[in-house]
Design goal:
Layout (H helix, E strand, L loop, with lengths): L3 E6 L10 H10 L3 E6 L11 E6 L7 H13 L3 E3 L2 H8 L3 H7 L8 E3 L5 H11 L3 E6 L9 E4 L7 H8 L4 E5 L3 H4 L2 E7 L2 E9 L14 E4 L4 H11 L8 E8 L5 E7 L13 H11 L5 H5 L1
Parallel strand pairs: 1-2, 1-3, 3-4
Antiparallel strand pairs: 5-8, 6-7, 6-8, 9-10, 9-12, 10-11, 12-13
């Protein structure tokens, strides 16, 4: 069955590393029509059978507008993947609390809504008894507004931190040094099935694991415990998933901690595994969609 597929992206993708052309080619080879559609562009969504949220990597700048667009898609005849229910659940990192309740180990976190003060940061250093913290928004992407703070010097950033976080819901966690020593593991699932994994290693002197910030990406098979924890986390999603990425770091005791469960617009690193785009296309072919030709018939 040939599908008309829209892949949601952003208006200006040139500053990002995007592997999706590999996936587009695989889908087109199977007879599907694939169109990249900027999420703000307002096309006629009924013209598509399936809308896949792929690279709208500026949505965090206007999360409600993004949700409104997805609600419009959801109300159309097109199928949305991942679903609107999944996006709403996954948008704020407070979903980590649900995962913790399900027995998935996460990084200890202090939550602040609507925002954090310098006093909150000082209290977090004391509560976590650590030398470094990470503070970031509860709704974020691309490491935007993510800060690594040293206890000895964070006061120099106090004015900037107040400007960023005084009215923005945020989260504070102890900094896990393994991100700079071992890197961050990412496991990928398509249609509920494990596909591949990578390790993302920051450039020297940095802690951010995105390629746009100079990180090195390595194809690597993860420790077996990570796959079991990833699948426990995925089971908490409110509906079926076309795609997922599960990110882990090791804590100071070399125990895994889930950092993020990426169900909205994760980079899927198709280039890092020869069959990854093929596996994604298999998941699309299994996805429950009624094509426009069959609807009209």
């Amino acid at each position: 069955m040939s599908l008309a597929i829209a892949c949601l992206t952003l208006d200006a993708p040139d500053d990002f590393v995007i592997d999706d052309p590999l996936m587009h080619a695989e889908l087109r080879a199977r007879g599907h029509q694939v169109t990249e559609v900027p999420w703000r562009s307002g096309p006629r969504w009924d013209d598509f059978d399936l809308v896949i949220i792929r690279t709208p990597w500026d949505y965090q700048q206007a999360p409600q507008a993004f949700l409104d667009v997805l609600a419009t898609i959801d109300a159309s005849s097109a199928s949305l993947a991942n679903s609107l229910a999944v996006v709403r659940w996954n948008l704020s990192k407070r979903y980590l609390l649900d995962l913790a309740q399900a027995g998935v180990p996460i990084v200890p976190t202090r939550w602040h809504d609507p925002g954090a003060t310098p006093g909150d940061i000082a209290a977090a250093f004391k509560a976590f008894d650590c030398d470094e913290l990470v503070i970031k928004p509860q709704v974020s992407a691309n490491a935007d507004h993510t800060y690594r703070l040293a206890q000895a010097s964070w006061g120099d950033q106090s004015e900037q931190l107040t400007a960023v976080f005084a009215s923005r819901a945020c989260m504070i966690q102890p900094f896990l040094r393994s991100v700079t020593e071992l890197g961050e593991w990412s496991l990928f699932y398509f249609g509920g099935q494990y596909s591949h994994a990578i390790r993302k290693c920051p450039k020297p002197g940095d802690f951010r694991v995105q390629e746009e910030h100079g990180a090195e990406i390595l194809a690597d098979e993860p420790p077996g415990v990570l796959q079991a924890l990833a699948e426990r986390a995925l089971a908490q999603a409110p509906s079926k998933l076309l795609y997922a990425r599960v990110d882990f770091l090791m804590d100071q005791g070399q125990q895994p901690r889930l950092i993020e469960l990426e169900l909205i617009e994760p980079s899927l690193y198709f280039r890092m595994q020869r069959d990854a785009a093929h596996r994604f296309a298999d998941a699309v072919d299994r996805w429950p969609v009624v094509s426009s030709s069959r609807r009209m018939g």
